[in-house]
Amino acid sequence: MNLLSKTFYSAALLLAASASAEFIRQDGHWQVKAGTPPEITPAERMTVVLIAMDIASSANDSGEQSAALKSWGLVAEANRGNPAEALAMLEQARIYTQQGRFEMATELIDAIYARHSSFSKFQDAVQLQFEIANRIGSGERLYLGGWFPWFKDPASAFTYWQKTLRLAPNGPLADQSLIKSARLAIELEIASKAEEALERLVSDYPSSKFLPEALEALAKIRAHESMGADWDQASTIEAADHWRTLADQFPNDKRTKQAPEQIHLLRDRAARARLNLAQFYWLKHNNPEAAKLMANACLSLAPESPAAKDAEALLAEIQKNPTPPKTIADRLLGTYPRPRMANDATPTTLSSDLDSLGFKKEAPRTATENERR
Q1: CA distances for 38 relative to 115, 172, 273, angstroms
Q2: Chain-centroid distance, C-alpha 353
Q3: Residue of 206, 277, 198 whose CA lies nearest to 238
Q4: Of 42, 124, 182, 222, which one has the greatest count of Cβ atoms within 10 A?
Q5: Rounded to whole angstroms, how far apart are CA atoms 164 and 166?
């Protein structure tokens, strides 16, 4: 750094910019935006700050990033608590991002958020944080010290997208951060993170242009989750509901074409699960009442499905003869005991001695005057 630069920075350490100044760069020079008076007396103080900013930007333009970082650091130190400090930290974060030093850049963005929430270029900081997350998610390496390549870690992008959301939950990049998180989670087969991002997108950003994609992805995840036990098919119904929402809200979206088929398949799967339970209670548990309950649930879920026809046949069989056919196991080990129904309960006769139930019979006594009160 030459003698002239050192002189300007020494002055800048003593002369701070006003909190109301907004800076812009035009034709290679920094200046205060028209309409945002710096409120500085004397005005020469702002001149020093602007020249210091020009020196820092010129160093970066010349490829001298280390010198630029030091220069912007001096500007930030000289203008603590003022917009010039926020601008200096933002420019440092940009340089760190160019060098692949994403953690350093994020720390500076966090500092801007904590100390300069009303910074006029705060959206630029949010955009930079979003860019960092995208670059990491795409598999770009971090560089230690700006030159030593480190391991690729796409999964760490989730943290950076979350930071973007924290910085501006109502900003234009919020829903993009969520859909990018979901896409990467699906690619990495991390279903829990994908669900979390998709559910938040659907619930918090109902007007997002990514909503059809989110509904489709969430429906597919739910459908995959439902490939389990017959008694655990809640995800199947949820998947069908997501397809139904997609079809109702976005009838012209290309994804909607497969919605009717998916809804039919999912409801048939859920109905078949109820039918399997009905057959289990009928053939294995000697419980016609539970079997009828499950068979009727099958009919309610998908009345036009093949499973519903089988459910109707089972109901007719139970109606005709409430005793299920005996299996080989029944003949060898005996029929499974049929559960007692509520209306079959026989009252239990109690003896006059209630001590066995925890009650002690005592002779009645006359209340005393104090007890009456």
Answers
A1: 19, 30, 71
A2: 63
A3: 198
A4: 182
A5: 5
Chain-wide mean pLDDT for the chain? 82
For residue 144, give both structure tokens: 């230690």
Domain ranges of the chain: 1-98, 100-209
Measuring CA to CA, which residue among 131, 137, 132 is closest to residue 152? 137
Look at the block and give the residue holding tokens 């998916």. 262
Write out the two tokens for 177.
């951060």
Beta-ladder partners of 24 = 31
Q: Which residues contact 93 (CB under 8 A, 6 or more apart)?
A: 104, 105, 106, 108, 109, 112, 125, 128
Query: What distances in angstroms separate CA 269 from CA 45, 227, 255, one per listed residue?
Result: 74, 9, 21
222-258: b or e for each residue (b if 16 or more CB lie within 10 Å)?
Answer: bbebbeeebeebebbbbbbbbbbbbbeebeebebbee
Is residue 369 predicted with pLDDT exceeding 90?
no
Residue type, 92: Q
CA distance 52 to 12: 7
Phi, then psi, of 143 in degrees rounded to 5: -125, 120
Tokens 């060098």 — which residue?
99
The predicted-structure confidence for 242-256, as pLDDT tens digits, reads as follows: 999 999 999 999 999
Mind spelling out the 3-state secondary structure of 331-366? HHHCCCCCCCCHHHCCCCCCCCCHHHHCCCCCCCCC
> CA 274 to CA 229: how far, in whole Å?
11
What are 166-186's pLDDT values in tens digits? 999 999 999 999 999 999 999
